[in-house]
Specification:
Length: 267
């Protein structure tokens, strides 16, 4: 099969997975729903079930001009954004890793991070069901890669990353809470960092994720305060910054680390 067709298939696979992630993003934070029930997607305004031809990732949103066919209520632009971002990231992972187990590892990782990013940004929570799913899938793919490559060191570094990631962020949260005399970070962030360590490994990936997420959080937080959208006392979810930093490290971690070593003279 020609490479272009493989890339097209990967792109449409990303759109389909993104559509499923939208279901997770909408339903998981709501206690009266699950990803299995109700079985059909529906308009949250008029509760009409959405026909299959109105539920085609990205395309249906464009054809319907962002409105429900029945009640004409606006469809959140978040839906096509999640689908498109997932598809683009799938393509990026394909270019980065080729068709290998590392590619599957990357697809699973970003598919866990995307709903965490959005749900935490919207609801200030990282649901345990996503964390548990990420842990199970992460252990599965990491063990598979280690077994396939007969590389016990790979598995050891991922398990060390899992423990170190959770422990380091727990310590940061504990110290931050003691200094500020209020809760500095949620347990969901600690679990997320453990999962990131499992997928990426311990060194130098974990320090890079912490540094990038802290920098991103500081910049965005400052902008939100300066523009008046947040006050100094307003909570700002940390999960999106951890998830975003993890994707950056997954894609460009090696060249970023090499650049850092060159700039500091350690190389």
């Amino acid at each position: 099969m020609d490479e272009i067709w493989i890339q097209i298939i990967i792109f449409f696979l990303g759109l389909a997975i993104g559509s499923f992630l939208n279901v997770c993003i909408y339903r998981i934070p709501r206690s009266d729903m699950s990803i299995y029930s109700p079985r059909r997607s529906f308009c949250p305004e008029c509760n009409q079930s959405i026909k299959f031809y109105d539920n085609i990732p990205l395309l249906s949103y464009l054809l319907l001009r962002g409105k429900c066919r029945h009640c004409k209520a606006k469809i959140s632009v978040l839906y096509p954004i999640v689908e498109l971002v997932t598809a683009v990231l799938f393509l990026a992972m394909s270019y980065q890793f080729g068709r290998t187990l590392d590619f599957l590892h990357a697809l699973i990782f970003v598919s866990v991070l995307i709903p965490i990013f959005v749900i935490d940004a919207q609801h200030y929570i990282i649901p345990n069901v996503i964390s548990l799913t990420g842990l199970i899938l992460g252990l599965g793919i990491v063990c598979t890669i280690a077994y396939h490559g007969k590389d016990l060191d790979y598995l050891k570094m991922r398990l060390i990353g899992f423990v170190a990631g959770g422990l380091v962020l727990w310590l940061i949260a504990f110290i931050g809470s003691a200094v500020m005399r209020k809760k500095a970070m949620g347990g969901g962030d600690v679990k997320l960092m453990a999962i990131i360590g499992l997928f990426l490994g311990a060194w130098p990936e974990l320090p890079m994720v912490i540094a990038l997420s802290a920098f991103g959080g500081a910049v965005i937080g400052t902008l939100l305060i300066v523009t008046g959208r947040k006050s100094r006392q307003s909570p700002i979810p940390y999960g999106p910054f951890l998830a975003g930093a993890a994707v950056v490290v997954l894609l460009w971690g090696d060249p970023l680390w090499e650049k850092y070593l060159q700039l500091t003279g350690w190389n």
